[in-house]
Amino acid sequence: MAPELATPSSLAEALDELRDEEALPLAGGTALVILLRNRLIAPSRLVWLQRLPDLDVIRPTAGGVSVGAMVTVDRLCHEPIVRRDFPALASAASRVGNLRVRCAATVGGHVAHADPRQDLPPVLVAMDAGIRVQGLRSTRVVPAAGFFRGPMETAVEAGELVTSIELPAPSPGGVVAYHRFNPGSEEDYPTVSVAVAMTRDPEGRVTAVRLALGGVADRPSVVADAEGLLVGRRPGPDDVRAVADAAAEGCEPSSDGRGSAPYKRAMAAVWTRRVLTSLLAG
User: Fold this and answer.
1) Could you tell me the residue range of the domain that residue 24 belongs to?
2) What's this model's pTM, rounded to 2 decimal places?
């Protein structure tokens, strides 16, 4: 039986519809419709979010920039403030699927889908972005590193909805980079992806770093050893190799059509080394 379709005109109405545990939000539908067609999910009701204009806004905030959940991925990669202040995020957005997908897929739907191979989550984790989640009675901001719980599993609870992505203001001396490795079609998910946020002082010493991997675990994974190996140092090749080795040792890939687990682990090291070398040379 096809699910009912609810078309709320306000966020409060949408949240009220989502109190039903068998209801699911419908944004761009690029992922949800595939799951429905393959009968992997069977919601009783779909709550269509396209009539909620308040969620389709990108605006500066005191702490950075807020990206509404209904902003499309294509708009994210072309928005001037995003391209200026968060070029790595704009670049990652431009690599999602193809143009048809990007024009339909929403930022909120992308993160809520929580496929561990997606492009945006590793960048959001590296940037220490927040995911704003709202229910009928409360609103909370979940750090991206704690938002993703596993394949298609997030911190969003029944009756809640992702309403925005909160991007922290760029740090002085900071830079963020994102690279994806995909030997097949560029429209496919990457085999391995690496996102790094790094801040250095005028003498070149690393003062802060966060490195996140995609595609090599059941969620975006932070390389915890990167901070201890790099902060307070002016890293050289040996330091970079040590972080790359830590990235390979800490990931938990599974074998699939994009490569075997050992191959993905090796590629995590290779691309971690390349990204760090590029950043440190800049």
Assistant:
1) 4-48
2) 0.94
